[in-house]
Amino acid sequence: MTPNQNFHMAYMDTCGPQTMLLIHGFPLNNGIWAPQYDDLYDMARIIGPDLPGHGASDTPAGSISLALMAQQCADLLDNLGITEPVVICGLSMGGYIAFEFVKQFPQRVKGLILTATRALPDSDTAKSGRNAAVSKIKKKGLETFNREMLPKLFSPASLDNNEELVGFVFDILNQTSPEGAINALQAMKERPDSTPILEKISVPTLIIHGEDDQIIPVDEVMEMQSQIPGSNLYILENAGHLPNMEQSDVFNGLVAEFLADLMEMDE
Ligand code: MLT
User: Fold this and answer.
1) 177-199 pLDDT tens trace
2) What is the CATH number of the domain that holds 63?
3) Whose CA is closest to 191, among 96, 54, 261, 59?
């Protein structure tokens, strides 16, 4: 835990030759990156914060924006004395925050990994869905909400064959505080459109998406990729909204190659 302006932010930190900041999605926490800590430890120093209200981080009172969460990630890097540019990897809401990080701190970004995410803001329908989700959490509790959300996170293959992974993720979902989940839903609802910055992204960008993602359709990601100069998109079979966990070997292989290329560029 590190004091991060007005709250304590929990984080995971490893050793390695270049720094990679992994930003989790909603309503998850840094536990989702377990396969990356395990396999990529020799390629990068991996820093995985728990976003406010998620995992072991404090839940600050009042509303919060994704831009502020990006600032909190930068504060964490500052607290750890990391001043050199880092690789930012964001999954879903973590990707929305990665875009906010790029907008605020372009000089701190060495490379970008976008997974299971989108640049577009919420549609009116999606905003209504956020309101309904907030009401459900308030009326029925977060665990009921999580139980309904759980199957939407996975491909049919994971749901049918990987009970252990599904149970592991359910435990992670239940570590979020109800206030933290509500604040994140509001923040996602109010997030700005990030498509205007796509054509200005000048760092190497890797995009990884699950073919069976039920939350963010593949077509939308293909459109996003076409707007980021020089980016590469990989669509993973038998993966839903959590490709880093559902197809961790393929995911880690792509990330390892990306990190190796970045290291070569440094030499
Ligand atoms: C996430 O996984 O972070 C969220 O499902 C993204 C969203 O609801 O837009």
Assistant:
1) 999 999 999 999 999 999 999 99
2) 3.40.50.1820
3) 96
